[in-house]
Amino acid sequence: MIFPFFASVIVFCIWLAYEIKKSNKKGDKAEAAFWKKEAMADETRKKPLDDLHYIVIPDEVLAPFLKEDKSFIQVNEEDNKVLHDAVLAFSHLKDNKIVNLSNISNTDLKLTYGAANLPELSMYDQNYTLLIRTLQAMGDYFYSLDKKETAKILLEFAVSSGSDIINTYKLLSKIYEEEKDFTKINYLISSASLLNGLTKAPIMKALNEISTEGNNLEESILDILD
Question: What pTM did the predictor assign?
Answer without folding.
Answer: 0.79
